[in-house]
Amino acid sequence: MDIRENMELFRELMRCGNDIYTWCYDADGQLLESNCPQEEVLSTAFSVLGCKDRMLTYWKEHSAPVTLGSGLGLIWGAAFERQDEKPYRAWVIGPFFYTDVSMDAIRRGFLSHIGVEVSAAWKHQFIEALYQVPTQPYVIHGRYLLMLHYCLTGEHLTASDLGAAVTPNLPESAPINVEHDRHKVWAAENALLQMVRNGDLDYKKALNTSQMLSNGVPVRSGDPLRQAKISSIVFCSIVCRAAIEGGLSPEVAYTLSDAYIQNTENARTMDELMAIPLAMYDDFIHRVHKMRTNPKLSVPVQKCVDYIEMHLSERIRAADLAAIVGYSEYYLTQRFHEETGLSVNNYVKFTKIERAKLLLKSTDQSIQEIANALGFSTRSHFSQSFREVTGKSPAEYRSQQQ
Questions:
Q1: Angle of CA points 390, 391, 395, to nearest 5°
Q2: How many CB atoms are closer than 10 A to CB 43?
Q3: Residue 49 has pLDDT above 60, yes or no
């Protein structure tokens, strides 16, 4: 892989949209190059706002790309090269504002968001430079960051794989100004909440779809950090209620929600905030899953059930499950039927059809795409199985949900 050629292409592609600048740092944080005409003032901002130090700390332990930001509403993204498993070069894109901001609010709040003394002259230069910084929806930034990671590593990731430069127990925020189909947003959010109610551990694709459709609660505010906190708090509140609907006790759910909301309020930078919603969502999913786990199932059978739920895109055979738990195929099939009341094949079929129902309601994927995504050999096989379980064809079921 010729990274230099890839980066030249990446830069040319970025020029087709806003002026998104690229920066290259070595493993010690020294700036090697950039294509930013205001390099000195914006590289200093990257440092004094704490983003560079957080990037270097994150880089030591992680390889996924990461979003970095401050309470001023500026966002950068970083993706990494490694050599011999050690940090080699970090490529940074940005800065940009993820939503419209008030320059007056930035002037008033400037000193509270930096950790070092700066000269009046540099502050003036910085404020002037901000007028040239583009505004870009957070979801678009995420796509650019995933593209940058691919250019450096050849690895395909999704939005749910993006990191946050701090690892508290918790934040993801979101902005506005994106035209989107409200019905699609509602359907995607409903799918996310249904996965909480079900304790469905295989949630990342649905989460990624939702992140690509919506920037969060469209609150107009001159303070971008406050706006992002509102989105995070709203998301936490609706996930908490979905978890209660899924069977989690209100005492546990509200206590957990209160803790995540307090962490949201305590966040001082955008990348602190970005860690919270993802961790919160994952936490509620796992708690509901654990609560819903059938206590009557033995550990090996529960392990098989969990494997089935996490691999619905694959063809799952009893022989594969038997190998996972160390049983013979005959013994596993007998025990699985005794404990669940279903054969392995029927359990797999019913579980896939439940996921298909969710996809038919919450996405605009074609029936063929859903059949492929759930590992059915043909569309007709999928339709036949769907009708056996629901009494309707996939098309009939979808039309009734509109």
A1: 80
A2: 17
A3: yes
